[in-house]
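DM from R.C. (forwarded with permission)

"hey, sorry to bug you on a friday — could you get me a structure for this? deadline for the figure draft is monday and I only need the backbone to look sensible"
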Amino acid sequence: MDVKKTLLEFPCLKERESADGIKAFDCPKSHLERFARYLRDVCQYNSLTDMASIDMGEEAGEARFGVVYHFFSHDKKRYVRVVCMCDSSDEPSLPSLCSVYKGADWLEREAFDMMGIAFEGHPNLHRILMWDSYPWHPLRKDFPLCGKEAPLPESFEGNEDAAKVVPAPENGGPFHSPSCGTKFASEREPRARFDSSSGCKSGTSNSHIHGL
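My reply, with the result:
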C-alpha cells in the first residue's frame, strides 16, 4: 500500500501507531464503506479476516464503542488495520461492509450480539449466539462475569434449571488488571474484584476486545 497516495485519496484518514508493524488508520464512520472498497479494488486487500469490537468504557462518552478491522491481501501477504468508532454510545452503529466483503456477515452479527453495535445495511442483523430477546450484550465492560438473569425463550421450556446463570471461576466482574508489575504472564490476566453487597466481583477494567 502506498500510504501517501492513500492519504491523498482519503484525507479524512489518520495514521495510527502500530506496535506490530501493520499499517493502521483511523477512519471516520462516514467514509468506512468507501475506504473498504478502495482497499479491496485498488490496494488488493481481498479479505476481511477479523473484526474486533471495542468498549472504551463509560468515561469515554460518545466515543465509547468501535470496531477494529483487519484486512488481508492474499497477493501481497500483508495486513492493514482500520479503526472506526461509533458516534453514539446510546445507539452505537456503523455501516455494514457485507456489500464489500461477504465475510463481514457473521462477524457483524457477532459484534451486534456481544457488544450491541448495529450495522446499517446488514441483510440479516439478528443475534448469532444469544436469543433475539436477550436484553444485554455480554462483552460490554459493565456486564458482570457472573452474568445476569434474563427471561428465557419458549424454546428453553423444561430446561430452566439447566439454564441458570453459574458464576465464572473468577466469581464476577467486570475485569481489572494489576496496576503493578508482575513476574508471570498469568498474573497479568484480568481479574475480578469481590463486591460483598452484590455477591459478584466488580472493579475497573481494560477495554474488552472482542474477536482478537
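R.C.: lifesaver. The first strand starts at residue 14 and ends at 15.
me: no worries. The helical segments are 3-9, 32-41, 104-115.
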